[in-house]
C-alpha cells in the first residue's frame, strides 16, 4: 500500500520533530552533565532529525509551497513539543501560551485553505512547466 505524498511528508515531519525536540530540550533533564556533553549528545540526536527532515521536504516540495512546508513544520513542532513537555517535564501550557498556539494553528488554516494547490516539482522544472502549458491550452 502506497501512502499519499502529503501523508508521507507529515509523518516524516512528525518523526523528525520528535528527534529535534529531544535534541533541543531533552538535555534539560540532565542539567548536572557538562554542557559539552549536552552539545555533543544533542548533535548526535539531531543527525537523525535531519535524516527525516530532508526527505520530508523533498517529498513535500511541489505538493506544498515552501512557505506551506515551513508553516506545517512549525505547527507539527508545537504539537510534538506539547506532548514532550507534558510527558517529560509535566508542564502544561498556560492560557497565554495556549492562545498563541491556537493563533499559529489559525496561520496554518490561512496558509492552506486559501489559494490553489501547487503543481508537482521536478529538479529541472520541466514537469511543472509542461503541466502549466497543458492547462493553459
How would you summarize this macromolecular structure in one to three sentences?
The chain is an all-alpha fold. The protein has helices spanning about 5-25, 35-60, 65-90, 95-115, 125-135. The longest helix is centred in the middle third of the chain and has 26 residues, at about 35-60.
Topology record:
Layout: H1 5-25, H2 35-60, H3 66-89, H4 95-113, H5 126-136
Helix pairs in contact: 1-2, 1-3, 3-4
Describe the structure.
Helix 1 (5-25) runs antiparallel to helix 2 (35-60) and helix 1 packs across helix 3. The protein is 74% helix and 0% strand. It is globular, with a radius of gyration of 18 Å. By secondary structure, it is an all-alpha fold. The two termini are 35 Å apart. The chain has one domain (5-136).
Number of helices: 5
> Helical percent range?
over 70%
Give the termini distance in whole angstroms.
Answer: 35 Å
How is the quaternary structure best described? single chain
Could you name the ranges where pLDDT drops below 50 across 5 or more consecutive residues?
A: 124-137
**What sequence of helices (H) and strands (E) makes up the elements?**
HHHHH
Amino acid at each position: 500500500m502506497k501512502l499519499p505524498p502529503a501523508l508521507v511528508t507529515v509523518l516524516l515531519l512528525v518523526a523528525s520533530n520528535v528527534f529535534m525536540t529531544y535534541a533541543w530540550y531533552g538535555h534539560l533533564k540532565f542539567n548536572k552533565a557538562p554542557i559539552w556533553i549536552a552539545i555533543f549528545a544533542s548533535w548526535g540526536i539531531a543527525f537523525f532529525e535531519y535524516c527525516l527532515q530532508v526527505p520530508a521536504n523533498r517529498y513535500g516540495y511541489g505538493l506544498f509551497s515552501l512557505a506551506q512546508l515551513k508553516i506545517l513544520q512549525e505547527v507539527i513542532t508545537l504539537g510534538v513539543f506539547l506532548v514532550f513537555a507534558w510527558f517529560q517535564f509535566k508542564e502544561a501550557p498556560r492560557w497565554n501560551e495556549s492562545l498563541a498556539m491556537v493563533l499559529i494553528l489559525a496561520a496554518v488554516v490561512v496558509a492552506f485553505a486559501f489559494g490553489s494547490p501547487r503543481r508537482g516539482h521536478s529538479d529541472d522544472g520541466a514537469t511543472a512547466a509542461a503541466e502549466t502549458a497543458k492547462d493553459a491550452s
